[in-house]
Amino acid sequence: MTQRRLLDLLAVAAVVLACFWQLGAVPLLDVDEGAFSEATREMLASGNFVSTTLDGEPRHDKPILIYWLQAASVSLLGLDELALRLPSAIAAALWAFALYRFTARMADRDTAAVAVLVMALGLQVGLIAKAAIADALLNLLITLTFFDIYRHYQAPRRGTLLRVYLWLGLGFLTKGPVAVALPLVTTLVFYVSLGRWRDWLRAVFWLPGIALFLAIIVPWHVASYLDQGLAFFEGFYLRHNVGRYTETMEGHGGQLWYYFVWAPLIVLPFTGLFAAALAQLRADWAHPLYRLLWLWFGAVFLLFSLSSTQLPHYLLYGGTPLFVLMAVHRDRLRGRWLAFVPPLLLAIALLFLPEILRLAEPYAKRLYEKEIITLGQTLFGPGYRIGMAAAVAAMLAVAFWRRLVPWQGLVVVGFVQLLAVTGLVLPPYFAATQGPVKEAAAVARELGGPVVAYRVRLPSFSVYREAITPDRPPAAGDLVFTRVDRVDRLLSEVRGVASEVVYRRGGVTLIRLVPAPDRRSR
Questions:
Q1: Are residues 269 and 411 in the same domain?
Q2: Pair 131, 144 in one domain
Q3: pLDDT band at 362 (very low <50, low <70, confident <90, very high)
């Protein structure tokens, strides 16, 4: 078997494992997966395919496209984790295919296969590829946008430019202005740096392209206005776009150093390859494609470093250019310590995860966190320890196998890491953090009656209960879903009731409120 054929087969295997293995095996993760999934369920239940709601209240976090795709998947396959996540998995697979096709034409097929391997075996991509959120789809559309922009730069054609506007429109319907602002700013710097700013102006103000973009986004905006008035525009554009950039939302980030820490971590096990590629930045500047790729990554890094709301996966909007550059410069990585120490440190930390949880338990400030940590310790059993020890041993063996050059060894380590994280780490993690929510929802669904949520934001509960869980003041007779550390506050706020515990596990509880005994009648 030739090296090219082997690399192609490995790339296909990596994409299948990263995107589809264990796709429906673990519960939905709150808050994001639960919120997207419940909004999709309510869309199907209400028949309103214009405006989304979450537990009966308007949800203005994202535009509509991902909900339509999830709704189509659920309509075909039924309401479960696999159906809700399938659009993201398909989008991630198409993202990998687009990466391969572009890189094969701009470089060669070996480099294209390595770029896909770096993408699929990286720590972060495998997580969002199997998540019922909008990010895998957005990454696909951003990637298609930039690739066609470069094709148009090389050989200006109306058809290529029309595709750029198509991807921009669909990206806008996926996550809003970021899908347009990022390519616009990056390409402005790129064309100006090459003295071709007039070409940029002609492309940006090309009327047929603008007309196509508006034809994609305007109908839904008009329908949304007719359905909700200005509520969506105020909620999405002002709060969830301007607000996310100027204010720290939901406690996420807001530090200039944030992505300096996360950038090396999200590309694990290829951190050393990232460093080797970064060392070539100055030389790459003379090559138009590499210049665009570095500008693309740099724009994302700078944009979100300055943002007041930060999450690790935001950096993946600039991940695709890194995958190409790391593949191009793969032979520049010669130091085995630089190559293998980062993934080994992660694997060793995961090997001792039960002990880390045990050490962290006394520092948990809330009862909710303590109970999750306690449950987690019971779920990482002997099989986990044996599997992770085998993963560490395999990585060490590869590190000392001199017949493999460092980048080849990292590909092997990447498969080991993917199998370990997806097969060993994530199932008990999801079982500890989300399993109790799913179980509580099943109990509530079986019992029936009025169910309310009290000071808790775990929307997957409503998905699994297949009903809206209103956030209203509880009353006697209600079944209340809440966190264990909020029960005392609930009972102090609702006078004249007592509680009967119906379910309690992993930091969440279902309690039935009943009239308190009248002491005067005794």
A1: no
A2: yes
A3: confident
Q: Tally helices (H) and strands (E) across the chain.
A: 27, 6
For the segment 70-110, what is each residue's pLDDT rounded down to a tens digit? Answer: 999 999 999 999 999 999 999 999 999 999 999 999 999 99
Residues 51 and 90 in one domain: yes
Sheet holding 451-453, edge to edge: 451-453, 479-483, 508-515, 497-505
Pairing state of beta strands 508-515 and 479-483?
A: antiparallel
**Do 191 and 54 fall within a single domain?**
yes
Beta-bridged to residue 498, according to DSSP, are: 514
CA atoms of 323 and 411, how far apart (whole Å): 13
CA–CA distances in Å: residue 493 to residues 82, 153, 385, 497: 40, 64, 45, 10
Residue 77 identity (one-letter amino acid)? L
Looking at the structure, tell me whether residues 294 and 314 fall in a common domain: yes
CA distance 92 to 96: 6
CB atoms near residue 338 (< 10 Å): 15
**Position of tokens 């080994």?**
344
Q: What is the mean pLDDT of residues 133-154?
A: 97
Q: Which domain holds residue 409?
A: 336-433
Using alpha carbons, list the distances in angstroms from residue 160 to 115, 147, 153, 251, 500.
23, 10, 10, 41, 64
pTM above threshold 0.85: yes
Asked if residue 177 lies in contact with residue 68, where contact means CB atoms within 8 angstroms, the answer is: no
Report how far residue 172's alpha carbon sits from residue 159's, in angstroms, rounded to the nearest whole number. Answer: 20
Burial class (CB in 10 A: 0-12, 13-18, 19+), 386: exposed
φ, ψ of residue 481 to 5 degrees: the values are: -100, 125
